[in-house]
Design a protein that fits this description.
This protein is an alpha+beta fold and 258 residues long. It is 24% helix and 22% strand. The protein is built from six helices and ten strands. The strands form three sheets. Strands 1-6-7-5 form a four-stranded antiparallel sheet.
């Protein structure tokens, strides 16, 4: 699933291309994609001008003259600018002089129109752009589960939770409220450092993710634990392990992470 760095990469690419343009027409090819929308998406957005393109957590927010077009990429969603239609194209937004195409083979993603950002209002503060208090982590749950909880702070998924916990030296099953305050503060700092570094490298392409021009990211080349089960730890040489925490495959070093 595209996480915060991948979505941020897409937003940075889309913003200069979309801002100021008008949506001439919109076509939804699969109704499942708009299953959460309380409004008719084509009818609501056609004729509107794009004011801005922003992000909160893993959600893309396209601000219009009236309301917002909110896009969540799910597991396999892709937004492509001026790209050919494919068998997996689920929506087409025709702009003045360009087109925005939404592809999604598995259709876990969604597109919705709302008069306010009510879909993202239920999320916690953005994991990259907010000042995060370590008190947010004080939950009676494994720290990996806390990092994945979008209502606590939004944007961290499986890849960046594993990478952050490794760099902070914290076992993914450690109960969050038992992490000492200095370590919790350090973990918050590490999470934001990892996210910023991943954005710099245009995200991780470990499955379907590409940016709006079809280019892969390269942060996957810098992963220290994620996807490296059985390989030697880059710090101590111990074979890395994979367990299940919060119903997610979780990679860690049994020596470096206590």
């Amino acid at each position: 699933m595209p996480e915060l760095p991948e979505v941020e990469t897409i937003v940075r690419s889309l913003a200069p291309r979309l801002t100021g343009r008008h949506i001439v027409s919109a076509e939804i090819l699969k109704q499942r994609i708009v299953r959460y929308s309380k409004h008719d998406v084509p009818g609501a957005v056609t004729g509107q001008r794009v004011r801005e393109v922003t992000r909160h957590g893993k959600f893309i927010l396209i601000g219009l003259e009236r309301g917002f077009l909110t896009i969540h990429l799910g597991m396999t969603g892709q937004l492509r600018f001026d790209s050919p239609i494919t068998p997996h194209t689920r929506a087409i937004f025709q702009l003045d002089g360009a087109a925005l195409v939404y592809d999604d083979p598995r259709m876990f993603g969604s597109i919705e129109y709302s008069e306010a950002t009510d879909r993202t209002d239920r999320l916690g503060p953005d994991a990259l752009n907010s000042v995060l208090s370590p008190e947010l982590l004080r939950r009676k749950a494994p720290i990996k589960a806390v990092l994945l909880n979008q209502s606590i702070f939004a944007g961290v998924g499986n890849i960046y939770a594993d990478e952050s916990l490794f760099r902070a030296g914290i076992h993914p099953r450690r109960r969050a409220d038992r992490i000492a305050a200095p370590r919790a503060s350090r973990l918050i700092q590490v999470v934001q450092e990892v996210l910023a570094e991943a954005v710099e490298h245009r995200g991780s392409s470990v499955s379907d993710y590409v940016d709006t021009e079809g280019r892969k990211g390269d942060f996957q080349l810098r992963h220290r634990v994620y996807g490296r089960k059985g390989l030697p730890c880059l710090v101590c040489g111990t074979p890395l392990r994979k367990i299940v925490v919060a119903q997610r495959g979780t990679h860690y070093c049994p020596v470096c992470q206590r």
